[in-house]
Amino acid sequence: MGIDSSASARAVIQRDPLGTQIAAALRQDIFFGRLLPGTRLSQQELCEHFGTSRMPVRDALRELVYDGLLELDGGRHTVVAPLNKADLRDSFLIEGMLNGLAARRAIEFATDADYAVLEDLHRRMESYHENSERTNLADLNWQFHRHINKLSGSRKLMAAIRVVSLNVPRDYLLEVPQWRKRSNADHEGILAAMRAGDGERVEHMMTDHLVSSAEGLIEYLTSKGVRLT
User: Fold this and answer.
1) CA 196 to CA 175: how far, in whole Å?
2) Own/partner long-range contacts of 3-9 (Cβ < 8 Å, ≥24 apart)
3) Cα gap 178→156, rounded to integer Å
4) 58, 197 contact by CB (below 8 A)
5) Given strand 70-72, what is the order of strands in its sheet?
6) Cα–Cα distance between 32 and 145 in angstroms, integer?
7) CA dihedral angle for residue 90, residue 95, residue 98, residue 100, rounded to 10 degrees
8) What string of pLDDT tens digits covers the 229 residues of the chain?
9) How many CA atoms lie within 13 A of 132 on its CB side?
10) The pTM is what?
11) Does residue 80 contact residue 37 with C-beta atoms inside 8 Å?
């Protein structure tokens, strides 16, 4: 099956539902080219790999088929679907637009304490080095964006972001380290625009931040020999 055990299994942590955890782990492997288009996925192998019964595995496969990341071949086997550049770009664009709107609204509610939290997360990302725990950078980046999104004060917006964020790999900065410098510079600019109260600018910057990340992922996958349609 070709699964990178260390990469996918570590993504499964103890929280429900288990099928969603497995789908998230497989989604990461697909997005980063560890599971190549055309790879056939065996339910039995997945059960053994994740140490679970068939039901959560079936739920995970069904979710990924629905998302278009997996498909059924002529023999009714589940295989990894071709990755499409337009779909990747759209996934990042949609999340970027929602995050941009959240950042614009966050300006109204952000306090000095909130900016202190964001600045601390940003500085810790800037000081990240290869000897750090691998999970630290991804978690710091997630906390940075989540704090801004929560400041929007909109449960509807947060719910929409949670849905679309499934199609944007969380470990992006770990897998594509050459993008860290650009990401840190973007975060610096986003914070500056927020502090200046420039809602239009911060919305544009946040959207562009996510959109440009799609191009970085496409370049990375191409360099790994993954064929994109």
Assistant:
1) 33
2) 3/29, 3/34, 3/35, 3/45, 3/49, 4/29, 4/34, 5/49, 7/32, 7/34, 8/34, 8/49, 9/49, 9/50
3) 34
4) no
5) 40-41, 78-80, 70-72
6) 21
7) -100
8) 656 555 555 554 445 589 999 998 999 999 888 999 999 999 999 999 999 999 999 999 999 999 889 998 877 789 999 999 999 999 999 999 999 999 999 999 999 999 999 999 999 999 887 655 555 888 899 999 999 999 999 999 999 999 888 777 778 888 888 889 999 999 999 999 999 999 999 999 999 999 999 999 999 889 888 889 9
9) 15
10) 0.83
11) yes
* 93: Cα separation from own chain's centroid: 12
State both tokens at 82: 């071709």
Residue with tokens 């964006």: 145
Instruction: For residue 79, give the nearest of 47, 36, 49, 19 by alpha carbon.
Output: 36
The candidate with the shortest Cα–Cα distance to 32, out of 205, 225, 165, is 225
The end-to-end CA distance of the chain, in Å, is 22
